[in-house]
Amino acid sequence: PAMEGEQRAEEAAEQLRRYRRDPGGWSGCRSTGEVAVSWRPSAEFAGNLYRGEGILPGSPRDVWECIKPVAGGLRTKWDQNVKDFEVIEALSDTVSVCRTTTPSAFMRIISPREFVDVVVMKQYEDGTMLSAATNVEHPLCPPRSDYVRGFNYPCGCLCIPVPGEPDKTQLLTFFQTDLGGYLPQTVVDSFFPSSISGFYRNLTKAVKALKA
């Protein structure tokens, strides 16, 4: 039901804001010119919650244009981890059930995945724009034999204005994903930090291209 979906989405958004406010327990695992990645054990499932933090060379609106979770959006063009993104059902103006498919990754050790999530978009008074998602089941999206079904737990992005720097955006991302299937933990633990740094690197290029 739509009400339940909207509620799950709101809870995911609230969870992201809690992660943002909660500085404790993070361990740094990777740092590039674009992003610092840290992790801590997830409270949602038997894996890790990852946090990426970086400053991007574009206004929050430009960055949002590149990452917003909408049908026909730019993300499938620049994000190498997103093969296809489709809206299955719009529950309201800001909440929808979406299906994301990912290509094989990590030298094909990780086969193609699909994720079905309820996604919410929000804007706050300080100009921060947020998209949050969490896994959901939907009758129009039964599991498919050619994809391994993975599960996202509360995850998403916050585009935060940088005071006095209108052409910069602090991008805070949270990922906590059960990839499903039978992957060695070592593969999972090395995949996410490298995938997140790739996300920031490719997004930085996409934002620059958008402004060009």
Could you give the topology of this structure?
Blueprint: H1 2-21, E1 27-31, E2 36-41, E3 48-56, H2 60-67, H3 75-78, E4 84-90, E5 95-102, E6 113-123, E7 129-135, E8 148-149, E9 151-152, E10 155-162, E11 165-175, E12 177-178, H4 185-211
Parallel strand pairs: 6-8
Antiparallel strand pairs: 1-2, 2-3, 3-11, 4-5, 5-6, 6-7, 7-10, 9-12, 10-11
Helix pairs in contact: 2-4
Distance between the termini: 43 Å
CATH superfamily: START domain
Radius of gyration computed on alpha carbons: 16 Å
What is the overall pLDDT average? Answer: 95
- By oligomeric state, this entry counts as single chain
Determine the CATH topology: Alpha-D-Glucose-1,6-Bisphosphate, Chain A, domain 4
Q: What is the count of distinct domains?
A: 1
| Name of the CATH class | Alpha Beta
Secondary-structure content class:
alpha+beta
Helical content class: 25-40%
Strand content: 35-45%
Largest sheet geometry: 10 strands, mixed
Strand tally: 12
What spatial form do the alpha-carbon principal axes imply?
globular
Order of helices and strands: HEEEHHEEEEEEEEEH
CATH architecture title:
2-Layer Sandwich
| Tally of helical runs | 4
Low-confidence stretches: none
